[in-house]
Amino acid sequence: MDHRLKGKILIDRIFIEGKSFFVYPVKMIYLVDEVPGVDIAYHCGVSVSKRNLKRAVDRNLIKRRMKEALRIQINDAGVLLKDKIIHMMLVYVGKEIVSYDVIHQSIKRNLKKIKVH
Length: 117
Hints:
By secondary structure, the protein is of the alpha+beta class.
């Protein structure tokens, strides 16, 4: 299943209607849609500012780390439910490259804050 967040309309809707949490260095913005008949699903987009990290190589490294940390933890977090889709955006706000462990812990604490029920 493709978990990429696509579409300008949906992304704009997440930023306007969604709820957000911030645990340095990752800000999570999410929106829950009820869709009857859908299996457990989520869509995720990642963003790293060009202003904070100038080199594309560094931005891509951070994006890979955020995607991997989310992939590993999303099923164990207990936020995925049947008949609901979670659309989320992960925004990296740090100005330097941090280790995978820091990103992993940040995403873990952000996922604990999501209330879907």
